Amino acid sequence: MTPATATVRKHLTDINEWQKLGEANIFPPDSRLELIEGEILDMAPIGSNHSGHLNRINKLFSKIIPDDVISSIQNPLPLGDLSEPEPDFMLLKPNDDFYSSRHPNAGDVLLLIEVADSSLLFDQNQKLRLYARYNIPEYWLMNLNDSSLEVYRQPHGDCYGEKTTLRAGDSVTLSQLNYITLNIADIL
Questions:
Q1: Domain ranges of the chain
Q2: C-alpha distance from residue 108 to each of 42, 68, 136 (Å)
Q3: Has domain 47-186 been given CATH number 3.90.1310.10?
Q4: Strand partners, 174
Q5: Torsion angles phi and psi, residue 14, rounded to 5
Q6: I need a surface site. Which of 29, 59, 114, 160 has the fewest CB within 10 A?
Q7: Burial of 43 (0-12, 13-18, 19+ CB in 10 A)
Q8: Local confidence pLDDT in tens for the 188 residues of the chain
């Protein structure tokens, strides 16, 4: 094979290498990066509309979830050896040390929410497939561009068997905490 016909290959990074890069302060402190399927990706800056909706979600859930359920905002979620996204919001199963000795894994997630405007297509495609592949039971995508909430359930393979799009005036009951029902208008 000559240099002109040699195949160009990506160097994929795994979680161990990714964490070592972080510990070595390779990236600037204000970097917004995620490891997705072995690739280090720049994420869009968080705008005021995005952060305001995330604040609203956090406040609402802090009032209604049981004391033992843990809310997590923009924290790492290791998925396999090649991905560590930082979802906007998660509800996690109880953990005595509040996940201070380890990051939660997919089996700890009760609900995962991404808030999307500029990242909408990425969240509807790559992240959706990733979350389904790791059996995240319920994935909500808050679509700020369309003022809607996309609810994904029943993961199998790299897709979800159920998708529902909700708007103000609708309500949703959490699949993993079925005693909690929210009015969509309260989070949009």
A1: 47-186
A2: 26, 13, 9
A3: no
A4: none
A5: -100, 175
A6: 29
A7: middle
A8: 556 556 777 777 888 888 788 778 777 777 788 788 878 878 777 889 999 999 999 999 999 999 999 999 999 999 999 899 999 999 999 999 999 999 999 999 999 999 999 889 999 999 999 999 999 999 999 999 999 999 999 999 999 999 999 999 999 999 999 999 999 999 99
